[in-house]
Design goal:
Protein name: START domain-containing protein
Order of helices and strands: HEEEHEEEEEEEHH
Structural class: alpha+beta
GO molecular function: lipid binding
InterPro entries: START-like_dom_sf (IPR023393), START_lipid-bd_dom (IPR002913)
Domain START: 46-208
Number of helices: 4
Distance between the termini: 91 Å
Length: 247
């Protein structure tokens, strides 16, 4: 009997060790694969990051020759009217409801119906100070020869004094093109570059560049379904044509 007890005890120890080894290899493989998120892209051509076929969203990144942080691009189709989408974008005080990690947003200056200065505070990853940014946004409305709205955004870091406990972002620059394909579908095409400033690991910043564009596009789609925008008929500061490219 002691012989059998010794045998089963050894077998139990062996099985525990084997299970531990398998678990370790599985975890290691997952961690190793996750490093793909942090490896630098050697190509300066656009690389597909995510293709959500169900929601019709594609995101890309590429490595710029003179920058440590990658640029981003997003292409998508939103099921909404262009006027509804514009109302979401013009609601500057509520960007925290949909924009990437925004905890504060406000309009600080309106130059004209198509030119604005905005102030945003972004929540940073744990252990890193939050970021703030001043954005200079210029809208190029639709015309008889331009069926899309073009939004150009560029950081204006010197416009306001540096705020305590916040790091001022030197760049959150992008161009966004909104084209109505019908009265119920809008194509979005955006390219940009974000520099969080301060001391942030390049892999952390690049991870944000990979994930934020997709999250923002989903946020826009979600917001356009809310009654406060869907059934809002207040006049917009510039003319918007929901079916401008249709015969």
């Amino acid at each position: 009997m002691p012989l059998f007890s010794s045998y089963f005890a050894k077998l139990k120890i062996y099985l525990i060790c084997l299970a531990s080894l398998i678990t370790y290899q599985t975890v290691y493989a997952k961690e190793y694969n996750s490093l793909d998120e942090f490896r630098p892209m050697l190509s300066n051509e656009w690389q597909l990051v995510k293709h959500d076929r169900q929601r019709h969203i594609k995101t890309y990144t590429k490595r710029e020759d003179d920058k440590a942080i990658r640029s981003f691009k997003v292409e998508g189709l939103l099921k909404t009217k262009l006027s509804t989408l514009t109302r979401v974008l013009m609601d500057f005080e509520n960007y925290s409801d949909w924009y990437w990690e925004v905890i504060e947003s406000k309009l600080i200056k309106q130059v004209s119906p198509t030119e604005y200065y905005l102030y945003l505070v972004h929540r940073a990853p744990y252990g890193i100070p939050n970021r703030d940014v001043i954005l200079h946004a210029i809208v190029s409305p639709q015309t008889d020869t331009q069926n899309y709205i073009l939004l150009t955004v560029k950081a204006a870091p010197e416009m306001l004094p540096i705020q305590p406990k916040l790091v001022r972002m030197p760049a959150e620059n992008m161009t966004i093109k909104f084209t109505p394909l019908s009265q119920e579908v809008v194509q979005i095409e955006a390219e940009g570059y974000i520099d969080p400033g301060g001391q942030v690991p390049a892999w952390d910043a690049n991870l944000i560049q990979r994930n934020a564009p997709y999250s923002v596009t989903l946020g826009l789609q979600r917001m356009t379904l809310q009654d406060r925008y869907l059934h809002n008929h207040r006049e917009l500061p510039f003319r918007v044509y929901d079916n401008h490219n249709l015969p």
